[in-house]
């Protein structure tokens, strides 16, 4: 039997090999097609990309005709470069560089010589193309933006690079691909499928007809249209309110997780990244290191959240039963909470006893410092308590990538026992040591979209859906993960007293001047102190303005977070913007014209110019801190705090 095993294996292997050879040489013509590549010319038919609409059916992004000049270096003959360059408005040096680049890619295969000619440029070239053997044109469609806002959401279209061509066989030199925004996230849906046509060539390199009667030709398939969750009206309005300001606005529908608005400021008109000027304009945007118009502050800007984080401190304290609604702590007023002998966490509230309700709407630092300390000192070791606390906070999506369908983002930071084991390897720390976390300082960092999602979870009394910009795909379905409910670790019963406190922020507290008649809004102000290290010295810069809210109080339709860099108090700029955005979405009109006029007329350009001047020629390291703290001799490695009377 063993004697037959080896011959049998050889016989089977030989048979399989012969069958495969027969299939490749007789049945399957694709390898024959490749072997005859020198006698075959390939032309691609590029489909239109899918259209993009907003949630109300408004067309946002369409297509326009464009033409690329293609070149096959091996076929170039007797080119009058002077006439050619004059026709296309390029220099001879540009011509030489582009031909050299095409030869590097392939002497025999077509590559893009000059992309994205408009109709008039193409018409002039088409008249004389017969004089320039080796060149031909390739029709494409470019984006045609129907709006002048939302650039950070849409992204842009650019040529693929060689690295991607090597990685993904679908793309060839000169192909276009979506970058950033939904153009990148939904590239395979929007791009469609390009068609391919094969043409036979004779020995003189002339086309003599379709190869194999079009047996291998394929038809281009247009990209699928997509509908965004975006509300174009409030997106436009948000960008108008943020003119001459820097920051981000994120609005979410709590019941679905759909992103209603995603504003970053400053931004740009998306149409400037279309056509032959795209590269030059992109370079200008890219190298603007001060305003950073390509930096999506709604998704990427990480700051200590300040007083809005007190919502989390209160909910965690309720869940761990270290407080109830009636638990009271005494505040010293402006001196606030004593962190250690001689050092205080200042407070803007008047002296007196505070419970959860007035602690929220008056934003008492002392109250939430005590709640946090009780939460951390509840167990024998703070390591266990801080992990319990951290897990409660992370259940709201803070300190984690949220998993939304846009290609950029940051995790933020919620500290845990590992954080403090690293910070204090040889010292036993306690809740008092890291008490700055209680008011959104210390080691806590969040992004605007995380804060908006946090408010959506509070509005829903304990759950949220993964934020997403997509609403519908024509002929397809959205990712099912966007319909999965994420439950927080806080029991539903604890949300009602917190929501009542947030409601009275507008009625009795720090946002009472921002009320909109007839709309019950729940919100929280915040002011993030902003420091920078310049020439080795810690310099105080203008505070950041923060505001979070949702409305209406019952059956909420919108949750929002606003951050304005160097905007001052939370109620100064961010708060009015939030109120205006909420009214615009719910009513489609504005009654608080006074707020609107004030915000539209506010310009922070002078503040930013001053900051730019401070940076010029100096080493600067940003070290943002949050509200109600000022520089003091350090008592711990956590944020040092002392008396302050800053309003939230």
TrEMBL record:
Entry keyword annotation includes Phosphoprotein: no
GO biological process: cell wall organization; peptidoglycan biosynthetic process; proteolysis; regulation of cell shape
InterPro entries, per the entry: Beta-lactam/transpept (IPR050515), Beta-lactam/transpept-like (IPR012338), PBP_dimer (IPR005311), PBP_dimer_sf (IPR036138), PCN-bd_Tpept (IPR001460), Penicillin-binding_protein_2 (IPR017790)
Ranges where the Penicillin-binding protein dimerisation domain occurs: 46-209
Domain named Penicillin-binding protein transpeptidase: residues: 247-579
Superkingdom of this protein's organism: Bacteria
Keyword list, A-Z: Carboxypeptidase, Cell inner membrane, Cell membrane, Cell shape, Cell wall biogenesis/degradation, Hydrolase, Membrane, Peptidoglycan synthesis, Protease, Transmembrane, Transmembrane helix
Membrane topology type: Single-pass membrane protein
GO molecular function: penicillin binding; peptidoglycan L,D-transpeptidase activity; serine-type D-Ala-D-Ala carboxypeptidase activity
Protein localization: Cell membrane; Membrane
Cellular component GO terms held in the UniProt record: plasma membrane
Name by which UniProt lists this protein: Penicillin-binding protein 2
Organism listed in the record: Flavobacterium crassostreae
């Amino acid at each position: 039997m063993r004697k037959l095993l080896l011959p049998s294996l050889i016989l089977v292997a030989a048979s399989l090999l012969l069958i495969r050879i027969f299939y490749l040489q007789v049945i399957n013509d694709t390898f024959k097609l490749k072997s005859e590549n020198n006698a075959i010319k390939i032309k691609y038919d590029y489909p239109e990309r899918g259209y993009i609409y907003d949630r109300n059916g408004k067309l946002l992004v369409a297509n326009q005709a464009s033409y690329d000049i293609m070149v096959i270096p091996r076929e170039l003959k007797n080119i009058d470069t002077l006439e050619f360059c004059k026709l296309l408005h390029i220099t001879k040096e540009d011509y030489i560089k582009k031909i050299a680049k095409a030869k590097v890619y392939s002497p025999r295969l077509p590559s893009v010589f000059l992309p994205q000619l408009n109709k008039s440029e193409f018409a002039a070239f088409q008249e004389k193309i017969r004089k320039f053997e080796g060149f031909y044109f390739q029709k494409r469609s470019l984006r045609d933006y129907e709006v002048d806002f939302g650039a950070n959401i849409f992204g842009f279209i650019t040529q693929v690079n060689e690295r991607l061509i090597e990685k993904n066989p679908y793309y060839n030199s000169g192909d276009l691909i979506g970058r950033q925004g939904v153009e990148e996230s939904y590239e395979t849906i929007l791009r469609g499928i390009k068609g391919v046509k094969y043409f036979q060539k004779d020995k003189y390199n002339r086309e003599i007809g379709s190869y194999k009667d079009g047996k291998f030709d394929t038809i281009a398939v247009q990209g699928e249209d997509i509908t965004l969750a975006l509300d174009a009206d409030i997106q436009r309005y948000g960008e108008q309110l943020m003119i001459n300001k820097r920051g981000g606005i994120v609005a979410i529908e709590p019941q679905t997780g759909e992103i209603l608005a995603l504003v970053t400021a400053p931004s740009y008109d998306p149409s400037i990244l279309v056509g032959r000027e795209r590269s030059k304009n992109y370079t200008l945007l890219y190298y603007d290191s001060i305003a950073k118009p390509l930096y999506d502050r709604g998704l990427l800007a990480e700051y200590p959240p300040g007083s809005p984080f007190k919502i989390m401190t209160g909910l965690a304290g309720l869940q761990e039963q270290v407080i109830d609604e009636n638990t009271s702590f005494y505040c010293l007023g402006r001196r606030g909470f004593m962190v250690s002998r001689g050092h205080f966490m200042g407070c803007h509230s008047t002296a007196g006893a505070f419970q959860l309700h007035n602690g929220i709407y008056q934003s008492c630092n002392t109250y939430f410092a005590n709640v946090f300390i009780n939460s951390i000192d509840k167990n024998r070791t703070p390591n266990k308590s801080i992990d319990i606390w951290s897990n409660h906070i992370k259940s709201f999506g803070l300190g984690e990538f949220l998993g939304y369908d846009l290609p950029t983002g940051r995790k933020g930071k919620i500290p845990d026992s590992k954080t403090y084991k690293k910070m204090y390897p040889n010292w036993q720390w306690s809740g008092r040591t890291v008490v700055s976390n209680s008011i959104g300082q210390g080691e806590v960092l969040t992004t605007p979209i995380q804060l908006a999602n946090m408010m959506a979870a509070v509005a829903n009394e304990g759950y949220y859906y993964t934020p997403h910009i997509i609403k519908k795909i024509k002929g397809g379905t959205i990712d099912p993960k966007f319909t999965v409910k994420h439950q927080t670790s806080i029991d539903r019963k604890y949300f009602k007293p917190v929501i009542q406190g947030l409601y009275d922020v507008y009625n009795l507290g720090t946002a009472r001047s921002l009320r909109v008649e007839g709309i019950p809004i729940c919100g929280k102000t915040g002011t993030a102190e902003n420091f920078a290290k310049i020439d080795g010295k810690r310099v105080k810069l203008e505070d950041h303005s923060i505001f979070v809210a949702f409305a209406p109080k019952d059956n909420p339709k919108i949750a929002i977070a606003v951050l304005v860099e160097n905007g001052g108090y939370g109620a100064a700029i961010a708060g009015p913007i939030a109120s205006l955005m909420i009214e615009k979405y719910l009513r489609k009109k504005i009654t608080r014209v006074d707020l609107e006029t004030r915000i539209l007329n506010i310009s922070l350009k002078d503040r930013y110019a001053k900051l730019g001047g401070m940076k010029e020629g100096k080493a600067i390291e940003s070290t943002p801190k949050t509200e109600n703290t000022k520089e003091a001799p350090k008592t711990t490695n956590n944020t040092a705090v002392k008396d302050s009377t800053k309003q939230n």
